[in-house]
Every structure is written in C-alpha cells, then in structure tokens.
C-alpha cells in the first residue's frame, strides 16, 4: 500500500470544497465579483488599481501570467465595451479557473483564455515548475520552493499576435522571473502596434533587477521605448536606481506616446 502524500491530501480537500461550495463572492476595488473558491484573494494586490486604470478604454489587452483571472476581470471592467482580453497561463487548472471566473461574471465572450507557456520563441520544450494553479509557478527551478517540473511547449507573443490578427494596445506581464524571455518574443508587436507594457520584474538567485533592467534597456533602445519606474514615475536610464529591490513594477512606453501626461494621475505609491 502506497503512502498518501500531503499534496494528494490537499487535492482531495480542494475537490471536496469545490463540490460543497464551489463559488464565493468578493469585493475588488468597489465591485463585487463571483469567483471560483480557489480564486478568492486575501485582499487587493498593490497593482490592481493601476492595472484597472491603465486598461481604461483599451480595445485589446494581453494578460501574460494571468494566474486565476483576477487582473483579467479588473482590466476588462474598464476596457472599451467591445474590447477583448487574452489571458495567458501555463497551468491547465488555472486556465479552467480563469474561464469559470469569466463566465461567472458574464465575461466569457470578452476574456479569451490561452493555455500556453510564453517565451522568446515558439516550439521550444522546456521545464515549468509549480503546483496545479500556483501564482508563483515559473520556468526557474526552485523558484518559491517549486521543484517538480512539467515539460511544456512554448509560444512567442509575436507569433500569437500575427496568427490571431489582434492589435494589442496594453500588455500586463507577470511571469515570475521570465520577463526577458517573454519580451524577447515581442519585438515585432512592439515595433508595429506600439502597445504600453506593464511589467513586474523579479530577482532570483544571482539575477538582480538592475542586471535585468540593463539588458532590457538595450532591447528597448532600437524600438524607441522608454522604461518608467512606476514607484517614482520617472524615466530610467541608470539601472542602479533599482539596487536592493527584489520585486518592482515598470512601464515600457513608446517614446511618441502621450501617456507621460496621464502618468501623473496614477497612484503608484504602493508599487
């Protein structure tokens, strides 16, 4: 007889809870949402209000690293009435929950769930680490104590945009340390469609945020994009301003964009 693992017991407990009480309600930024119980947040994340504001009036948003769909719900609420949001998530279980949350809130026709591991090139097969629907799942072994790998095929966002014929005007990227790999597969989209990008940067192991920003600035220069440190609402030329940060949020903004005027209206004190 095999010994039952803690993770297996947790899976059984989750299944029982889903059957007994599969949904719950929660208030996010003044709006009540019906959610799958697994998606109920402890409270509003510090970037929710900024993302909701950034999405105002947008017609096509890519939510890369959508987790359980809360940011997708928030951003869709302020997008143009005919706007669509594409929610990208690697975990199959998380994708099911995102789809359920969209349907529970009448947004199944506006939130398109894409089960894919986003990277610099399509067709690679790489290891992905995380549990069934973890917000800290990553391609980095051991990140947030995740060590069980799954083999996943990759997709580049440039290929997705070209294949679906969409024209994104905003991207949210939160991929737990894989930011540079995602952005490396986005050059064509940035050059043609000139979207605004909200990116969460992470440090891990020997990789620091200043090192990541230095490489990112090299990529942005030929694309005529600027990097804005949201906490300071300032354009960054020197990566050293991020020294000591383990996680932070930046905007990648086309040089010609008028968004710099709108930036002053955002409350970014918690970022």
UniProtKB/TrEMBL annotation:
Pfam families noted in UniProt: Methyltransf_21
The protein's name: Methyltransferase FkbM domain-containing protein
Methyltransferase FkbM domain segment(s): 63-218
In terms of NCBIfam families, this protein maps to: fkbM_fam (TIGR01444)
Q: Which Gene3D superfamilies match?
A: Vaccinia Virus protein VP39
Q: Which InterPro entries match?
A: FkbM_mtfrase (IPR006342), SAM-dependent_MTase (IPR052514), SAM-dependent_MTases_sf (IPR029063)
Report the source organism. Candidatus Promineifilum breve
SUPFAM superfamilies named in the record: S-adenosyl-L-methionine-dependent methyltransferases
């Amino acid at each position: 007889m095999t010994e039952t693992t803690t993770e297996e017991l947790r899976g059984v407990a989750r299944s029982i809870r889903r059957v007994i009480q599969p949904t719950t309600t929660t208030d996010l930024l003044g709006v009540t949402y019906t959610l799958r119980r697994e998606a109920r947040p402890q409270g509003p994340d510090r970037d929710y209000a900024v993302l909701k504001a950034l999405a105002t009036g947008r017609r096509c948003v890519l939510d890369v690293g959508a987790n359980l769909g809360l940011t997708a719900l928030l951003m869709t609420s302020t997008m143009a009435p005919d706007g669509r949001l594409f929610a990208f998530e690697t975990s199959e279980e998380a994708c099911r929950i995102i789809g359920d949350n969209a349907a529970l809130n009448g947004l199944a026709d506006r939130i398109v769930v894409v089960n894919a591991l986003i990277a610099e090139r399509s067709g690679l097969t790489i290891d992905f680490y995380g549990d069934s629907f973890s917000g800290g799942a990553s391609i980095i072994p051991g990140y947030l104590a995740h060590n069980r790998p799954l083999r996943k095929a990759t997709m580049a966002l440039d290929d997705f945009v070209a294949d679906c014929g969409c024209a994104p005007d905003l991207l949210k990227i939160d991929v737990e340390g894989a930011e540079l790999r995602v952005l490396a597969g986005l050059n064509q989209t940035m050059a043609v469609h000139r979207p605004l990008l909200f990116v969460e940067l992470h440090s891990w192991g020997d990789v620091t945020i200043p090192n990541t920003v230095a490489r990112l600035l090299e990529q942005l220069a030929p694309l005529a994009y600027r990097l804005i440190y949201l906490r300071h609402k300032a354009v960054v030329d020197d990566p050293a301003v991020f020294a000591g940060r383990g996680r932070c949020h930046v905007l990648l903004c086309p040089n010609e964009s008028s968004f710099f005027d709108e930036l002053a209206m955002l409350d970014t004190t918690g970022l």
